């Protein structure tokens, strides 16, 4: 049995900085760690320093031509192709080095699990799930999620489940393993007809011998805690039970929150806290307790991400924080100086009740339609009944 949870962190990961007013600002990471420490979540925890991914690590997922473009981009000019030099993915100094460090941090976290040193591990700087084999996309240069999964497969792990709760579809990870039966990718996200990247329909289920290993649950704009969690529980436990992964990898983007400026779902930090506890239970029930957690999106930098991911860290460490926990005054005093007049939260709750009613098999709402469509697309491929609500 490994230790409780390995936390991979060093301030050097803040070098992944897309600059200026870019939404993916590294301040969200610094404020998360500061809040977690202020609340005692990390008391006695010795963080593990990441090391950059090697070229061999990255080439399991990315092409050599693309990696060469990333290396040369800071000196080559504004537009170099491969999705680099765009508004979403501006070129920045030491881009390869900073991106390789994020990927290496996720490998380092995976290594703690594969080696048996820990049952759980986390890299909140990771979760860059949109990068493709030969191009950057959606603020993501190298896909650390796919790189860590590919590394684990290389070490002999036979079945890995990747579960993505970011508001945007986990398209890059799905693309990496769409025809690989060893990896199941599951994504709950805002409906692709209403949000970038425009993929993640229920009918995307994998190909060839991997049919059924891509699972997509597209949700209508406005979906809140109760409906989001009903959809989650109507699909995810059943497919994990059928697949029986040896490791559960989760991308824990915080941008499904109702205050996120880049999307339109309506979760609360209370619903996100409940989701992280659900992830912990799923890892324990279906993956032998092996859980690799990564960060992801989240663009309410001061009000949402630090609280959500502090709850994530607390859940991973079995140090769950009560929702009504007061945010320490020193964290508020520090943050108010950089928050540009954003009103700051004073507790770890939004005052929401994340309770939900389980799916009954009745299609009474747009969310129920998504549940039905996903179950009908995927469940028969695993020998499950798409209609029976007990599955």
Automatic annotation (TrEMBL):
Organism listed in the record: Saccharopolyspora shandongensis
Taxonomic lineage: Bacteria, Bacillati, Actinomycetota, Actinomycetes, Pseudonocardiales
GO biological process per UniProt: acetoin catabolic process; epigenetic regulation of gene expression
Similarity-based family: Belongs to the histone deacetylase family.
GO molecular function annotation: histone deacetylase activity
Superkingdom field: Bacteria
Protein name, UniProt field: Acetoin utilization protein AcuC
Pathway note: Ketone degradation; acetoin degradation
Keywords: Acetoin catabolism
Domain Histone deacetylase: 22-315
UniProt-listed Pfam families: Hist_deacetyl
């Amino acid at each position: 049995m490994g230790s409780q949870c390995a936390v991979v962190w060093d301030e050097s990961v803040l070098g992944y900085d897309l600059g200026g007013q870019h939404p993916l600002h590294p301040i969200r990471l610094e404020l998360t760690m500061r809040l977690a420490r202020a609340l005692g979540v990390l008391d006695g925890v010795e963080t593990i320093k990441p090391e950059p991914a090697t070229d061999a690590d990255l080439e399991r997922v990315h092409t050599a031509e693309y990696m060469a473009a990333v290396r040369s981009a800071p000196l080559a000019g504004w537009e170099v192709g491969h999705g680099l030099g765009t508004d979403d993915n501006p070129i920045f100094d030491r881009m390869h080095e900073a991106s390789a460090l994020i990927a290496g941090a996720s490998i380092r976290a995976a290594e703690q699990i594969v080696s048996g040193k820990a049952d759980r591990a986390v890299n909140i700087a990771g979760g860059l799930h949109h990068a493709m084999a030969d191009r950057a996309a959606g603020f993501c240069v190298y896909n650390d999620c796919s790189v860590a999964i590919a590394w684990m497969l290389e070490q002999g792990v036979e079945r890995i489940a990747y579960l993505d709760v970011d508001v945007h579809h986990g398209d890059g990870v799905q693309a990496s393993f769409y025809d690989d039966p060893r990896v199941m990718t599951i994504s709950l996200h805002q409906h692709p007809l209403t949000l970038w990247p425009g993929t993640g329909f229920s009918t995307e289920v994998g190909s060839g011998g991997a049919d059924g290993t891509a699972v997509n649950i597209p949700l209508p704009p406005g979906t809140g805690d109760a409906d989001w969690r009903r959809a989650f529980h109507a699909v995810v436990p059943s497919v994990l039970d059928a697949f029986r992964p040896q490791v559960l990898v989760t991308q824990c983007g915080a941008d499904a929150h109702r205050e996120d400026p880049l999307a339109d779902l309506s979760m609360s930090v209370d619903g996100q806290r409940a989701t992280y506890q659900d992830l912990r239970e799923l890892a324990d029930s279906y993956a032998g307790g092996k859980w690799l957690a990564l960060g992801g999106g989240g663009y309410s930098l001061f009000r949402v991400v630090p609280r959500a991911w502090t709850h994530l860290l607390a859940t991973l460490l079995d140090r769950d924080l009560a929702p009504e926990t007061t945010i320490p005054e020193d964290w508020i005093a520090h943050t108010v100086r950089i928050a540009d007049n954003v009103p700051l939260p004073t507790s770890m709750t939004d005052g929401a009740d994340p309770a939900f009613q389980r799916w009954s098999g009745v299609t009474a709402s747009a969310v129920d339609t998504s549940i039905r469509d996903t179950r009908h697309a995927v469940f028969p491929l695993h020998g499950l009944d798409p209609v029976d609500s007990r599955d």
